[in-house]
Amino acid sequence: MTAYGWCEAVAEHSSPPGFADPEQRTAARAEIDAVVARHFFNLSDKELAVVLDTFHVLRRREEKKYGEFRTKRLVLEWYDKV
Fold first, then answer.
1. Half-sphere exposure of 19 toward its Cβ, with a 13 Å CA cutoff?
2. What's the confidence (pLDDT) of residue 1?
3. How high is the pLDDT of residue 12?
4. pLDDT along the chain (82 residues), means of 10
5. DSSP tag of 75
6. Number of domains, the chain
7. Which domain holds residue 30?
8. Is 69 helix (H, G, I), strand (E, B) or coil?
9. Is residue 10 part of a domain?
10. What is the pLDDT of residue 8?
11. Does residue 8 form part of some domain?
12. Under 8 Å CB-to-CB from 81, ≥6 apart: which residues?
């Protein structure tokens, strides 16, 4: 891969340097989702909320684990910042 100017492969089920912390990875993913929704798909915050609400399995898992739909909250928080 590096012959093509790409970075070296990371072993499966591991994290690249700097993203070992799952909370950092979650925040980075939420920020990327917000940027894509706002700047590439031109979604309003209300439209983005509707799209996020279609992820029923994720919602159930997060509500069971965190007591809230954490992904939706984080993405919408980032939406206001980007």
1. 10
2. 46
3. 74
4. 64 67 88 96 98 97 97 97 92
5. H
6. 1
7. 21-81
8. coil
9. no
10. 73
11. no
12. 31, 34
Positive or negative torsion for Cα 59, 65, 66, 70: negative
| Concatenated DSSP letters of 27-67 | HHHHHHHHHIIIIIS---HHHHHHHHTT-HHHHHHHHHHHS
Q: Which long-range contacts (CB under 8 A, 24 or more apart) does 43-46 make?
A: 45/76, 45/79, 45/80
Residue 71 tokens, joined: 């992904």
* Closest among 33, 18, 21, 19 to 74, alpha carbons compared: 33
Torsion angles phi and psi, residue 18, rounded to 5: 90, -10
Which 8-state DSSP code applies to residue 20?
Answer: -
Q: What is the DSSP letter of 68?
A: S
Could you say which DSSP state residue 16 is in?
-
Sole residue written with tokens 């997060």: 62
Could you tell me if residue 11 is inside a domain? no
User: Tokens in use for 63?
Assistant: 């509500």
Report yes or no on 15 lying in a domain.
no
Residue length, the chain? 82
**What is the amino acid identity at position 14?**
S
